[in-house]
């Protein structure tokens, strides 16, 4: 049960880590709304790194953001959180691989391996939290501008890149939780006997052996 849970945790953490890359490379974090347009001639969509536009014929053009300091604060924070998520995911994968009981990496010190696996689970949870905060913050700004009647700029809708990011966060959180739960399980062979129990049993055996030895003195020794 413990080994299977660790394998499931590693799989969930790895898939969540891969989806972070997929979400970052996806251009559709937000897409221009077509709710108020009868005839759609062009579509504008953006992510954390670039802005793209496509027309009705399918021709599109993308350009990277030229400066970092001129970007809105939530975009800069989302960038930092997604990069931190990738770093935490790397540490989580390394900790899970080294700390798994079925892995030969790190020797046979299962107490140390269990602690390393627990640290890997914490890193997976941090990865999921960073991704969840980044995509949720980005989506909150999209919805705030969309429902603001006084906002005169282009209104956007939530793109598919955010949904991939949410999926990545959920998988990473589940993988970290499974890895932490696996560290709590102990098989019967891993139970440690107390040293004082063996001492007491040995003391009882020595007393029994002493009492059972024949004495050199007979019943009439003092007569």
TrEMBL record:
Pfam families: PMP22_Claudin (PF00822)
InterPro entries listed in its UniProt record: Claudin (IPR006187), Claudin_CS (IPR017974), PMP22/EMP/MP20/Claudin (IPR004031)
Membrane topology: Multi-pass membrane protein
Keywords: Cell junction, Cell membrane, Membrane, Tight junction, Transmembrane, Transmembrane helix
Transmembrane segments: 7-24, 80-98, 118-140, 160-183
GO molecular function: structural molecule activity
Compartment(s): Cell junction, Tight junction; Cell membrane
Assigned GO CC terms: bicellular tight junction; plasma membrane
UniProt record similarity statement: Belongs to the claudin family.
Function: Claudins function as major constituents of the tight junction complexes that regulate the permeability of epithelia.
Protein name: Claudin
Organism: Austrofundulus limnaeus
